[in-house]
Structures are given as structure tokens and as C-alpha cells.
Amino acid sequence: MDLKQLQEMLGRIEAECEEAVKKAASLDALRSAESKLAKGPLADAMKTIKQFAAEQRGAAAKAINRIKGRSRSDSRPLPSSSSEPMWPANAARPRRLTRPCRRQ
To answer: How far apart (Å, rounded) are the C-alpha atoms in residues 58 and 20?
Structure first.
């Protein structure tokens, strides 16, 4: 496999991702679609990285991670809701509400 073939494969995965987002009627459906993509086609794409020459692995991983980031449900708006995402992809995650246990 070369970078061009990987780009074609990622284009198909991205189209699947967009279709799943359009069909999702709830947050649960969106997360389910995300899980199916992450465990299926994106996992297969990640396995192909080792087939690339060392100088091409960075570009391949970058392309895969771009699609993986787009498929994350927390960086997309809820279907049939406002156009704002749940929280921006570059925003800090909420802090834990409980304190960690102290070792004695």
C-alpha cells in the first residue's frame, strides 16, 4: 500500500463517518457510530502504517489521525440541535469532581 491508496481508503472512511453523523438521531447513536468506525476501518488503517517506509510513516499517521479526530463525537454538534459542538475540540476537558485517593 502507498500513500495514495491510503488517502483513497481514508476518503471512503471519511464518507462513512459523514453518513453516520447524518443518520445519527441521538448522542448514543453518534457514539455507537464512532465506536464502529474506530474499531473497524480506522483500526485497519492504523495497522497499515507499519507497511510504509520510515519517511512516509509520519504522513500516513497524520492522515489517519486527521480522520480519527473528525470522527470523534465530542468534537461534533449533536444532530438536530444547535450548530455549536458539545464543547470545542481544542477546549480543556472538565476536571474531575472527586479527589484522588491518597496513599497511606
So the answer is: 28
* CA dihedral over 46, 17, 36, 27, signed as positive or negative: positive
Q: What nine digits make up the cell of 93? A: 476537558
In total, the chain counts a number of residues equal to 104
pLDDT tens string 83-94: 555 555 566 655
Residue that has been written with the C-alpha cell 479526530 in this structure? 69
Classify residue 104: in a domain, yes or no.
Answer: no
101 Cβ contact partners less than 8 Å away, ≥ 6 residues apart: none
Cα dist from 99 to 52, 91, 92, whole Å: 44, 22, 18
Region 4-13: mean pLDDT is 89
State pTM to two decimals. 0.59
Residue 104 CA to residue 101 CA, distance in Å, equals 9
How many domains does one find in the chain? Answer: 1
Tell me whether residue 92 is in a domain: no
